[in-house]
Amino acid sequence: RKEVEQDPGPFNVPEGATVAFNCTYSNSASQSFFWYRQDCRKEPKLLMSVYSSGNEDGRFTAQLNRASQYISLLIRDSKLSDSATYLCVVNEPNYGQNFVFGPGTRLSVLP
Amino acid sequence: EAQVTQNPRYLITVTGKKLTVTCSQNMNHEYMSWYRQDPGLGLRQIYYSMNVEVTDKGDVPEGYKVSRKEKRNFPLILESPSPNQTSLYFCASSPYTGELFFGEGSRLTVL
Q1: How far apart are alpha carbons B63 and B78 in whole angstroms?
Q2: How far apart are CA B63 and CA A100, in angstroms?
């Protein structure tokens, strides 16, 4: 059974803090990995893709550990506007491809 | 403008009255998918389609039907809605690059 797991939180952090989320996946054949952001009752939107070499976009850094089957997201210098739910998404191979979502981690950045 | 359009956005109906939620994308994407989102349960996949006439069950297909007769459209059909299908529904499409493009969501209430 395919599974993508995340700590649901909530993570309550003060402005300016650094916060990290992890996500584990069960299918070792998974091919690509992503972090999405979802604001309350809105549609999810792509935050960043996760590459084997790791990647950074401003205050956000994503890393992939294939051996341990987890991906991570690090947010530095948290802003109030970072408050959202962060969804880990794995693209799994079957006879085609399919996207599997984790349950999401809720982040609240407090003033 | 590239987009995924869902209709209706809001609907209140009664148990047993068949309804269809339409989803249309104008990006020529092969992959389309339906999700439902309930408090505390995250996004759960209902059905997905990897191309025209190719559909497959997700994690929670019971009580739903889909069809993919043309690439742009992927309607979700509730033949006999029940109160446990009250939820927020999202349609999404992707060219398999990893970015899923979501519709704005359809909030359905079944009385």
Answers
A1: 6
A2: 21
Q: Which pLDDT score, from 0 to 100, does residue A3 have?
A: 85
In chain A, residues 6-45 whose CB comes closer than 8 Å to chain B: 32, 34, 36, 41-45
Low-confidence ranges of chain A (pLDDT < 70): 1-2, 94-96
Could you give the percent of chain A with pLDDT greater than 70? Answer: 95
CB-CB under 8 Å, A99 with B100: yes
Q: What is the DSSP letter of B111?
A: -
Alpha-carbon span A82 to B15, nearest angstrom: 39
Give A6-59 as a DSSP string. Answer: E----EEEETT--EEEEEEES-TT--EEEEEEE-TTSPPEEEEEE-TT-EEETT
Measured distance between the N- and C-terminal CA atoms of chain A, rounded to whole angstroms: 41
Tens-place pLDDT, residues A12-41: 999 999 999 999 999 888 888 999 999 988
Strand partners for A35: A48, A88
